[in-house]
Amino acid sequence: MGETQGKTGIGVIGLGKRGRGLLKQLLKMDNVEVKAICDWNEDWLKMGVDSIVEAGKPMAACVRSYEELLAREDIEGVIIPTSWTSHVEIMVAAMKAGKYAACEVGAVASLEECWQLVRTQEETGVPCMLLENCNYGRDEMAILNMVKQGVFGELIHCECGYEHDLRKSLTDGYDSGHYRIHHYLHRNGDNYPTHGLGPVAKLLNINRGNQFLTLTSMASKARGVRDWARVNREEGHPLREAELAQGDIITTMIKCAHGETITITLDTSLPRPYSRANRVQGTKGIWMEDNASIHIEGRSPEHKWEPFADYREEYEHPLWRRYIEEGVRGGHGGMDYLCLQAFVESVERRIAPPIDVYDAAAWMAVSILSEQSIAQGSQPVSFPDFTKGKWIRRKPGPASIYSLETVDASVFA
Amino acid sequence: MGETQGKTGIGVIGLGKRGRGLLKQLLKMDNVEVKAICDWNEDWLKMGVDSIVEAGKPMAACVRSYEELLAREDIEGVIIPTSWTSHVEIMVAAMKAGKYAACEVGAVASLEECWQLVRTQEETGVPCMLLENCNYGRDEMAILNMVKQGVFGELIHCECGYEHDLRKSLTDGYDSGHYRIHHYLHRNGDNYPTHGLGPVAKLLNINRGNQFLTLTSMASKARGVRDWARVNREEGHPLREAELAQGDIITTMIKCAHGETITITLDTSLPRPYSRANRVQGTKGIWMEDNASIHIEGRSPEHKWEPFADYREEYEHPLWRRYIEEGVRGGHGGMDYLCLQAFVESVERRIAPPIDVYDAAAWMAVSILSEQSIAQGSQPVSFPDFTKGKWIRRKPGPASIYSLETVDASVFA
Q: Which residues of A touch B153 (CB under 8 A)?
């Protein structure tokens, strides 16, 4: 058993491309034993087995149903990189089975799913985590460090987004039966808000003394995927004539309880370089990702930008400073590994994960509220208070520890 | 008389800082004679006189009431750089007096003012122009040229703004009795949208086959001016304790008739470098001002930015190419001169100005609609159709000629 060896027993449910990537990260961790892997697709299961062999780790059980995996006693936590519409169902089943549960990011379809997560955790006492890797991005964590030290003064406005040209992968997905393009064909809203919003929510202490109050969203027309398919796919391909529901650009504005505003952009079906479009602005300064620049009053020359790189050097987050010394590992510039590690550590220490069920519910709700607002001609819609009032007195505590026990927790306070 | 000398007789109403700057530009134009200047402030009138003497031009009549100026027969057009709340009153009076009228940009206070402009022009047949200098910005005009040539494909989304740290000048204004800070004390909305929106409206053919349909606005809390005054003004200064109505950041989203979206940011009371925050995005590419970069599909390396400077060299607007050869003149990088020249040319040739009354009404309406939306918790509000349906069949024509007769008009088509 994992416990007897001093290792944490983890299961992986879903071995698509993302699931196989996360499995490889888990196999690098000395404190983890992957006890079981699960997928209905035999080819993907086989690829998981290959990864375990390659890593020289003990073989995991291979199962085709998540119920079977969740029934195993040697598993303490499960990673759920499945499709958007199955995340919550499996998260709920995992918590009911007493397993710490962690799912990948992506659009949920109803507020009831968010409530299901909250309700299940409150009833079972078993925690769950949203695996928002961008909360562990190097820039994002340096900015968190700066905000906590007051470098930006009082925060006033943040911007963020997911700006990633997915036209080819969406079209390939259509050809291979992947689920994502079908959301684009039928739904219209910000289907992927958390890469930008997760880090911003932590800066603004959402669910811990602050709250998202309302949002309003607007969608542009949809042209990108269709036009791309017309150039890159043969006559007769359905996407060449498809009328996607999903607008090319979705802009969302959020108002917070303490008067801060947030703008989120989803931009995934037009040609462009990748960006998370971060902007953090307070009474003492502003940081922008897109020009890699910062301006801090009293330090920067008046009305001039300075390179952010110099500030990152100075304000590197302690977690990242140590991570760089020890060697950065894994995908997406190293943040995937840190995010998974934070989950594993929560399981190991039986503590609340740093991105908890209230975070998951509030961040994921943006997809649905955005759809509702767009469907109603950009009417403002209200966020449910998933904490049921507890946000008023909740303070950043152990739950804000971003992994690595030796890092001074005070920087997350 | 101006006409007999082959010169256009112009009057200037309002000799504050901006008015005196524009007067100096007019005095550089060989085809213009400034026949009269007007202000109630004797010191400012005197400064205007000094400028005329310094330029070696014939002395203008000096009057204290605009009615007196408008009654003069030697004046064909008037420039109205007065305060925000007097622009429309004087524009209307000018048109009724048969003078081509041009006012500076700034917030109007009611939709009725926009309708007054439209109604007066339609009744009198006398044109008016909004002096939106940023429509003549070098980057903006190169982008216009590129859009008209199809480089960006079908336009989908634009962003723009007025991001200018005005904390010192707002506070100085309070001390000197200037009007602008009083808007900040009492109103909450995008009070200065046209620097960004004017050029974007021309890209999207607003009022000429396209239309602004609705907008929704959101305001952050207000901290910037107060916090700045606390550091930079002595104990007892009213702005140290002032509760400004105007939020520090105002974000506005506009939906257009053909499905394009526009985001506008007003950011004038927090520390930051200047930007008009332009972003133009179509099915074939994207330009961003803040990183001075562009990405054009099939030309730029995949998923990579290129410096915009190279493209500007290639797509320099003909007006600007000639302007650079002849020598760039005047304020704000030369665009003030071009904008005034376009007005003067319209007067001289008795043609419609390039930024006409429908443009002025639609662009200025944003301030009011933004306030209404914010006051209603970011409800969407509808734009009036100031063209009363004529936008459906209006096409870019002579009115789109951006001055300089020798420039091929086809690039504005």
A: 227
| Contact between residue B121 and residue B390 where contact means Cβ atoms under 8 Å apart | no
Ranges of chain A with pLDDT below 70: 1-5, 396-413
**What is the phi/psi pair of residue B59, to 5°?**
-65, 140
Helix (H), strand (E), coil (C) string for A350-370:
CCCCCCCHHHHHHHHHHHHHH
User: In terms of domains, do A162 and A123 share one?
Assistant: no
- Residue B359, helix vs strand vs coil: helix
How near does any CA of chain B get to the CA of A294, in Å?
9
Inter-chain CB proximity B227 and A153 less than 8 Å: yes
In terms of Cα–Cα distance, which of A39, A33, A47 is closest to A4? Answer: A33
Residue carrying the six token digits 């022009």: B121
B243 and B172 within one domain: yes
Using an 8 Å CB-CB cutoff, list chain A residues near B292: 291
My answer on whether B218 and B338 are in the same domain is: yes
DSSP, res B405: T
Per-residue confidence (pLDDT) for residue B405, from 0 to 100: 43
Number of domain units in chain A: 2
Say if CB B157 and CB A220 are below 8 A apart.
Answer: yes
**Given a cut of 90, is residue B303 above it in pLDDT?**
yes
Alpha helices by DSSP H, listed for A109-157, are 111-124, 138-148
E strand map for B248-375:
249-256, 261-267, 279-282, 285-288, 293-296, 306-307
Task: Find, among B157, B380, B277, B365, the residue nearest to A214 by Cα.
Answer: B380
pTM attached to this predicted model: 0.95
What is the nearest CA distance from A30 to chain B, expressed in angstroms?
Answer: 36
- Regarding whether B199 and B56 lie in a shared domain, the answer is no
**Cβ neighbours of residue B141 under 8 Å, at least 6 residues apart?**
B135, B317, B319, B320, B402
- B164 & B247 share domain: yes
Torsional sign, CA A327, A333, A336, A339: positive
Residue B116, domain member (yes or no): yes
Half-sphere exposure of A42 (CA within 13 A, CB side): 0
Classified as helix, coil or strand, B118 is helix
Structural domain boundaries enclosing B399: 135-412
DSSP 3-state of A165:
coil
A150 lies in some domain: yes
Q: Which of residues 193-252 of A touch B (CB under 8 A)?
A: 214, 216, 218-221, 223-224, 227, 247-249, 251
CB contact (8 A) between residue A260 and residue B219:
no
Residues 349-378 of B with CB under 8 A from A: 377-378
Question: Which backbone phi and psi does B86 adopt, to 5 degrees?
Answer: -110, -5
Q: What angle do helix axes B138-148 and B194-203 make, rounded to 10 degrees?
A: 20
Residue B399's pLDDT is what? 37
Return the axis-axis angle of helices A335-349 and A17-27, rounded to nearest 10°. 60
Asked if A117 contacts A203 with a C-beta cutoff of 8 angstroms, the reply is no
| Half-sphere exposure at residue B128, Cβ-oriented, CA atoms within 13 angstroms | 36
Residue B252's φ and ψ, nearest 5 degrees, are -130, 135
Predicted-complex ipTM score: 0.94
Q: Closest approach of chain A CAs to the CA of B122, in angstroms?
A: 33
Tell me: do A26 and A142 sit in the same domain: no
Do the Cβ atoms of A251 and B255 come within 8 Å?
Answer: no
